[in-house]
Amino acid sequence: MRTPKPLSLAVTCSLMALPPAFAQEAADKRPTEENKEAMASVIVTATRGAKAVDKIPGAVTVIGQQDLAAQYQIADDPSAALVTFVPGYSPSRQKMSSTGESLRGRQPLILLDGIPQSNPLRAGMREGYFADSAIIERIEVISGASAVQGMGATGGIINYITKSPRKDGTTVGVNARAATQFRSDNLDWKTGVTVSHKSGAFDLLGYASVQRRGMSYDGRGRRLGIDNVQGDTLDTHGHDLFLKLGRDFGDQRIQLTLNRFDLKGDGDYRNESGVPVAGIPTSSVPGRPEGLPPENKVRTASLDYRHADLAGGAFTAQLFKHDFESLFGATQTATFQDSALDPTRKLWDQSQIVADKTGARVTWVRPDAFVRGLEATLGLDLLRDHSLQRLAATNRTWVPELKFESHAPFAQLEYEFGPVTVRGGVRHENAKLEVDTYTTLAAYGSRRVEGGATEFSKAVKNIGAVWRFAPQWSVFAGSSEGFGLPDAGRLLREVRVPNQSVSNLIALQPVVTRNNEIGVNWRGARGQLGLSRYDSRSKLGSVLRITDGVGVLERLPVVVKGWEVSGDWRPTKEWSMFGSYARTDGKTAATQGAPLDLALGARAQGPDKAVLGANWRPLAGAQLRLQATHLFDRHINIGRRIGATDLEEKFEGYTLVDLASSFDTGHGRIGVSVENLLDKQYVGYYSQAAAATDAGNTYAGRGRTLAVSWSRMF
């Protein structure tokens, strides 16, 4: 099916939506106050300004506190919530590593209160664990390429919003959660304390937690395989310290936010290879693996200033700092061998990624600028990102320090007349990547690469329109571009040709992705429904292929098409239902200039997915939730090879059912949940498709798991 061009539709809707006769008819059919409240109740801030969701020309998902609480009760896994509530998000790995997790076949930009958590210069796929789930109030997801929040959002934006004090006075909250499969080594537990204070213009929220995770078992009672190299949540411990201080000064506010998060392996179990041809997945046995256990250390800080009425508009400024450090497990891979260090070529070493970001973000939103109904948004983003990858045991450079700096002014105009909202904008990215002279590892030939700098200057644009053509109904069309870099670190560390210079490596050219999308939404007092169709294209994409265990990044065109539907319905006060379906079809080419006839593999794209769930409130203060997630079969690239690389992938789908309940008592709220209620035996999507023949990386998923939680406010 040929997708209409959203730019044409946006202009057509804008010009044709309000002929005189229709304008009068629309005025006679204004929404009731109840419907107005329902449609305007969902406000999104990931667009760089508070915006009602029915005025955004794109697919938006907001996961509220109630849904998050139920999902985190089932599984304390950040990506599990995204899988359940975001149609285009691929299945969770249930690991510390998020390799293979994507949004609409591309990488999203992950934010915490607007602060970038993603590391696009050297993506080690460990950015999914950066904060305790208990501090998250809601998650805003804007699907499709976007430049509104800066570099990296080729698949969309995922913004985690932290909690803030809401009521006057001081409260202390205690929460605890324990999960078990009734084995001696698989108890998971977490406990945290929250202090909330609000007095006049001053407010404070502090949180501290401690967590321990044991091992887990599959549906057949076999211990799950632990990923000792890439990182796992099994056999780990962690803690989080969070503090938010704020003070209002009339129309102004200043706020300081600090978060310190650590997650580290205990190192008590070793990976035990399975037998994939016999259907036996990877497992684990007690024992100390070589080296130090994998670890994530994340430090996030921001200072925010807001002025509600500066020169007739709302002004916000944010200074932030984000320090990220991930240690991977030890391995004897051939890449790490160096005869000068170990002539026997049995050297153990472990990778470590360090990424430090500092930046500033300034936004000014002026309603009724120049003419009534015209809203102007102006801003400037500054970013400095220094990333490197080293081998921790021998202190060798694997990826030299990447010094990235960018400044990006942007402007957005939005005009609202009657039931039509038209918006368009441009962001001008000016970026520079500088790398000092370095020498590659011995495995790559100890090549000396001349340092240098490469600069990018690119204007990325967006345009779209929303037409609220009837009470509760709206249709949108939009075209937006996202700006990103390929994994520069992976490219630079694998230089094998002598006499290369950083500035001459064409592969460092940016990835510009354009997302064209049309959709229709219904939002009423008792529910909502959304349907969208998208077409995402990048002429110079980023495709990772694995040859003999080594990843090679190739710059090839990528096209991802798909459609999504999601909604919820509340027929009575006691009952509500929700569901979604996503179909994703990504294609690339074997080589530059070849036809786009290769399906994207599991490293880039998830399978088609359907989710269905229901909530029941039998009594005041009590809730029961039953939900099911079905992943459809996906067999791709049958018989296709590129050189020694086998591109064939086969995935047999499965259905998982979860149950969660909670009820209030005089001693606090108690929750009881069962993950994988039917005790389904399954091997995860990524393991089936991308690692089907890898005996050490074919991981089964968790079997039936009982979790009990308790929380109370004092």
Explained architecture:
With 714 residues, the protein is mainly β. The protein contains seven helices and 41 strands. The chain has a 22-stranded antiparallel barrel. A hairpin with a 5-residue loop joins strand 33 (609-616) and strand 34. Helix 4 packs across helix 5. The chain starts with 5 loop residues before the first helix and ends with a strand. The model is unreliable at 1-40 and 544-551 (pLDDT under 50).
Query: What is the share of helical residues?
Result: under 10%
* Global outline: globular
How large, in whole angstroms, is the Cα Rg? 25 Å
What can be said about the biggest beta sheet? 22 strands, antiparallel, barrel
Provide a count of the helices: 7
> Which structural class best describes the helix and strand composition?
mainly beta
Overall average residue pLDDT: 89
Low-confidence stretches: 1-40, 544-551
The percent range for strand residues is: over 45%
Would you count the extended β strands for me?
A: 41
End-to-end separation in angstroms reads 58 Å
Throw out a few tags for this protein.
714 residues, mainly beta, 22-stranded antiparallel β-barrel, five-stranded mixed sheet, 7 helices, 8% helix, disordered N terminus
